[in-house]
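Quiz preparation item.
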C-alpha cells in the first residue's frame, strides 16, 4: 500500500513488555517454525466454481422467496416492477464489473474497505469497517438467520404459527453451526456453499417452470393490472432502488476473499460476470412466474410469496417450499460470514481493529478470531425489537461506501495511470454506477429524511472512534499492557498466530 501504516490499536510491542515476559510455554508452541513447509497463511482454495457459489449463494437469499414486493409497492405496475428488476440487475452488473477491475488491480482481500483505503486513506476506510462491524453485518446476519429459523420450523408447526422462542433457539443453533464451520475449515464452508447454491437454483426452477407453463397457456391478465392507484413518484424511486439493489446485494462478496482466489486475474471477472447473468435471469423469470399465477394485490398481501405460489400450483408439495427457503437462508448466512470475516481480518492487519482479528488458527488455517467476533454481536441482535428498521437506517451507508469505492477506481485511473490492470472496464461504467449510487443516496434524504438521518448519525460515530482507537497513540501504559496481555491470552486459548505472509 502506498500510505504508511497506521498505529495498531493495542498489542504489538506490548507483547514484549515486562508484564508479558513470562507467558505459559504453550504460547511458544503456537509460534510456527520459519522452516516449516506448512506456513500459517490463508490458502488459495477459492476456484472458479467456489467463487461463483459464493456470489450466487450469497445474493439469492430469502427475499426472492418471501417478499419480492418492495419494488412493486413503489413502482405501481407490473411492467414497471419488472423493468426495475432488470435495471437493478444491469446496475449491479456495472458495479460488479467495476469491482472486478478493482479486485484484479488491487490484489488484496477486504473489498470496499481495501479499495477505499487505497484511494482515499485510512479515515474513510475505518468508518466503513466500523459501521460494518458494529451494526450492518450483525443486523443483516440476524435478519437472514431469523428467516432461516422461521422457515426451518414452519413444517413442524403447520398450519399453526411457529412460537417465537422456537424460532430464536433454532436461529441461534443455525448461527452457531455457521460460525463453527467457517472457523474449522475453508474447504468445508466452500463445499457447503456449492451444495446450497445448487439447492437454491433448484428451488427457483421449481417456481419458474410452472409459472412459464401458465404464461404459455395465455395467463397474462395480471401483467396489465396496477398494484394500486398511486402514480409513480420520484420520491418512491430510492425505495424501489433499495429493494432491488438489496435483493442483488452480494456481487461484491468474492472481492472480500481476493487473496484466497486461485488465479484471481481471470477467476474474479469470470465468476462475477457468470454469477450476475445467472442471478438477473433467475430474478426476472421468478417474478414473471409469480405474476403469471398471482395478481399484484395477492402478491402485496402475501407474507411469503413462494409459499402462496406453491399452495396454488403444487398442492401438497408446497410443504417443501419452507425447507428450500431455509436452505437458501443458510447459504446466504454461510457466504456472508465466510466473506466479511476477511474484511475484519484485513482491517486488523492494517491496524484499524484489534490485532487478534488478524491472526490465523495454527492448524485449520482459518481467520478464527475474525469469524467468531460476529457471533456475540449477531446473537445480541436477535433480541433487538426493531431490527428491520435498523437495516433501513443503514441502507444508505452501504451504497454510499460502495459508490465511494467505485469512485476510488476513477480516482486511481487518474492518480496511478500506470497501475497494473489485468481487467479494465470502459470508464462510463464506473462513472454511471457511482453517480447513480450518490444520486439515490441523496434522494433518500428527501424521501425518507428521518431514517436516513439516523443512519448518517450512526455512520458518523466512526470519526471519533477513529481518532480514539487509531490516531491516539499515547494511551495509558496500563491500558496498553492490559490489551497486550488480553491479546496474548486469546492467542493461547484460540491457538492463533499472525499470518506468516504478512509478518514484518
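Solution:
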Amino acid at each position: 500500500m502506498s500510505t504508511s501504516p497506521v498505529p495498531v490499536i493495542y498489542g504489538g510491542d506490548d507483547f514484549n513488555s515486562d508484564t508479558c515476559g513470562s507467558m505459559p510455554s504453550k504460547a511458544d508452541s503456537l509460534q510456527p517454525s520459519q522452516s516449516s513447509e506448512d506456513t500459517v497463511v490463508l490458502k488459495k482454495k477459492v476456484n472458479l466454481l467456489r467463487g461463483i457459489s459464493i456470489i450466487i449463494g450469497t445474493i439469492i437469499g430469502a427475499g426472492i422467496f418471501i417478499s419480492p414486493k418492495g419494488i412493486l409497492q413503489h413502482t405501481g405496475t407490473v411492467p414497471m416492477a419488472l423493468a426495475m428488476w432488470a435495471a437493478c440487475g444491469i446496475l449491479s452488473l456495472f458495479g460488479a464489473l467495476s469491482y472486478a477491475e478493482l479486485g484484479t488491480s488491487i490484489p488484496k482481500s477486504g473489498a470496499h474497505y481495501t479499495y477505499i483505503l487505497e484511494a482515499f486513506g485510512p479515515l474513510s476506510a475505518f468508518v466503513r469497517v466500523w459501521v460494518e462491524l458494529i451494526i450492518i453485518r450483525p443486523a443483516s446476519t440476524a435478519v437472514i438467520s431469523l428467516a432461516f429459523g422461521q422457515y426451518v420450523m414452519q413444517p413442524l408447526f403447520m398450519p399453526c404459527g411457529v412460537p417465537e422462542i422456537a424460532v430464536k433457539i433454532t436461529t441461534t443453533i443455525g448461527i452457531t453451526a455457521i460460525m463453527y464451520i467457517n472457523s474449522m475449515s475453508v474447504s468445508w464452508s466452500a463445499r457447503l456453499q456449492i451444495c446450497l447454491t445448487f439447492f437454491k437454483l433448484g428451488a427457483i426452477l421449481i417456481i419458474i417452470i410452472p409459472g412459464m407453463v401458465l404464461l404459455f397457456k395465455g395467463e397474462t391478465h395480471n401483467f396489465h393490472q396496477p398494484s394500486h392507484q398511486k402514480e409513480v413518484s420520484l420520491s418512491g424511486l430510492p425505495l424501489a432502488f433499495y429493494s432491488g439493489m438489496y435483493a442483488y446485494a452480494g456481487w461484491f462478496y468474492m472481492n472480500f476473499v481476493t487473496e484466497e482466489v486461485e488465479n484471481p486475474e481471470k477467476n474474479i471477472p469470470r465468476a462475477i460476470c457468470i454469477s450476475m447473468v445467472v442471478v438477473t435471469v433467475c430474478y426476472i423469470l421468478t417474478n414473471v412466474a409469480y405474476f403469471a399465477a398471482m395478481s399484484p394485490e395477492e402478491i402485496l398481501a402475501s407474507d411469503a410469496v413462494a409459499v402462496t405460489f406453491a399452495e396454488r400450483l403444487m398442492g401438497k408439495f408446497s410443504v417443501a417450499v419452507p425447507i428450500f427457503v431455509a436452505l437458501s437462508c443458510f447459504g446466504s448466512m454461510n457466504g456472508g460470514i465466510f466473506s466479511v470475516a476477511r474484511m475484519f481480518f484485513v482491517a486488523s492487519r492494517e491496524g484499524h481493529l484489534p490485532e487478534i482479528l488478524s491472526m490465523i488458527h495454527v492448524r485449520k488455517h482459518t481467520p478464527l478470531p475474525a469469524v467468531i467476533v460476529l457471533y456475540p454481536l449477531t446473537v445480541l441482535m436477535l433480541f433487538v425489537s426493531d431490527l428491520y428498521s435498523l437495516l433501513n437506517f443503514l441502507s444508505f451507508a452501504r451504497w454510499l461506501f460502495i459508490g465511494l469505492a467505485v469512485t476510488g477506481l476513477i480516482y486511481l485511473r487518474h492518480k496511478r495511470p500506470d497501475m497494473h490492470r489485468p481487467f479494465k472496464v470502459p470508464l462510463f461504467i464506473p462513472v454511471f454506477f457511482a453517480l447513480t449510487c450518490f444520486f439515490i443516496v441523496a434522494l433518500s434524504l428527501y424521501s425518507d429524511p428521518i431514517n436516513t438521518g439516523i443512519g448518517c448519525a450512526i455512520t458518523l460515530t466512526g470519526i471519533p472512534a477513529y481518532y480514539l482507537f487509531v490516531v491516539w497513540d499515547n494511551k495509558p501504559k496500563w491500558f496498553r499492557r492490559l490489551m497486550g496481555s488480553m491479546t496474548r491470552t486469546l492467542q493461547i486459548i484460540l491457538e492463533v498466530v499472525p499470518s506468516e505472509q504478512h509478518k514484518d
